[in-house]
Write a structure and sequence with these properties.
Elements lengths: L2 H4 L7 E3 L1 H13 L12 E4 L6 H12 L2 E5 L8 H4 L1 E6 L5 E6 L11 E5 L7 H13 L11 E7 L13 H4 L3 E5 L3 H9 L5 H9 L11 H10 L10 H11 L2 H12 L8 H6 L4 H11 L6 H17 L6 H11 L6 H12 L13 H9 L2
Parallel strand pairs: 1-8, 2-7, 2-8, 3-6, 6-7
Antiparallel strand pairs: 4-5
Length: 373
């Protein structure tokens, strides 16, 4: 039974993928208030643990060249941690005055920048009340965020087994809200260019239902895939692989991965092998051996197509003539049903790659594309 079935989790806003959150952030930064006395409405991203909320925001800021600030208010024990500490100075006339020195983590540079308040509802109620002015005015007693900064918060769902503090309407209405849900295609696109073990990517694409939100989360899966990366032959090292899987994942997922390895599915052909093959015939034979049998393994075929599509769409480099020739041979493989062929072609030609538009000139593919326009 999944966590969603066990608990009545309470989240807010539309349910979205990581790619949709990136599009939303792009819109919010493009719509930044022109007036200096106006500030953008903070964005709160809700979601289960380990789904990648924090990592998503950090990588978005880095990718766009934005400044990045961070606090985890659950670590704050008193308001001084948030507001700053008092400092007594002596004037020339001998009298003293008290001022508040802002914390060292307060951003100083002008934006654009993102100030992330991580796991906000794991802070106690006193700290939450103290944050309310920051959400409303982008400032506190002793400090304010520089111009062109945006506040983003993350939160775990309420109404379940998370150790969180409920936020009242006065706080909730100071923010806009979305709920991040796991989307296997969005995750695979990220994983393809984040140095995640390709055998792990293939496993998640083949069995997306394993991401239950319990012990098996995107975070714990990446931790596991990191631990097996240096093991070249997983099948020859099943004992250590199982120990590592049991240490990171729930028992059912660990068993599924061992079965995945035992059936040689960890050796699926990779996007690089398809595009860089000096001779395409061996690639064709490997794919047909995996897919064609008593029962056609469309699940395996779908994994191969998805990985190749993600690789092509996410990579900025244009295809060489040889790579395009291999892509053309691959997409025309008789073993690929027309619906999968069309879905792949549509996504590739929508990318920014000019070389990908040449698929229109492939008769079998171009006909499919044009009839669906």
């Amino acid at each position: 039974m999944s966590k969603e079935q066990q608990f009545d989790y309470q989240v807010y806003g539309a349910k979205v993928s990581s790619l949709e959150i990136e599009s939303l952030l792009n819109h919010l930064f493009e719509s930044f208030p022109d007036r200096k006395d106006s500030v953008p409405v903070p964005l709160c991203i809700w979601g289960m643990h380990g789904i990648g909320k924090t990592q998503l925001i950090k990588e978005y800021a880095k990718k766009n060249g934005y400044h990045f600030g961070y606090i985890a208010p659950a670590q704050f024990e008193e308001m001084g941690d948030l507001v700053g500490m008092p400092k007594i100075t002596t004037k020339e006339c001998g009298s003293t005055e008290t001022s508040i020195v802002p914390p060292s983590w307060v951003p100083q540079q002008e934006g654009p920048g993102i100030f992330l308040i991580d796991d906000v509802n794991r802070a106690d109620d006193r700290i939450l009340r103290g944050i309310m002015q920051l959400l409303q005015d982008y400032e506190l007693v002793s400090w304010k965020l520089p111009s062109k900064w945006m506040i983003v918060l993350t939160a775990n769902p309420d109404g379940g087994d998370y150790s969180v503090t409920s936020m009242d309407d006065a706080m909730l209405t100071r923010m806009m809200h979305v709920t991040l849900e796991f989307d296997v295609k969005s995750w695979a696109k990220w994983a393809e260019f984040s140095n995640v073990d390709p055998r792990g990517i293939a496993f998640v694409l083949a069995y997306p239902e394993i991401v239950t939100g319990g012990r098996t989360t995107p975070r714990s899966l990446v931790q596991f895939f990191c631990s097996i990366k240096r093991i070249r032959d997983l099948k020859d090292n099943l004992t250590i692989v199982k120990i590592l899987a049991d240490g990171c994942l729930d028992p059912q997922t660990a068993i599924s991965f061992i079965n995945f390895v035992s059936m040689d599915l960890a050796k699926l052909v990779t996007p690089e092998e398809i595009l860089e093959a000096s001779k395409f015939e061996p690639i064709r034979n490997r794919i047909e051996d995996l897919v064609e049998g008593k029962v056609k393994r469309l699940d395996i075929l779908s994994v191969i197509l998805t990985r190749l599509t993600n690789y092509l769409v996410s990579s900025k480099a244009e295809l060489t003539d040889k790579q395009f020739e291999n892509l053309k041979k691959f997409i025309q493989l008789p073993t690929i049903p027309n619906d999968l062929r069309l879905a792949m072609a549509q996504e590739i030609v929508k990318s920014e790659k000019k070389s990908a538009k040449r698929l229109y000139a492939v008769p079998e593919v171009g006909k499919l594309l044009l009839t669906k326009m």
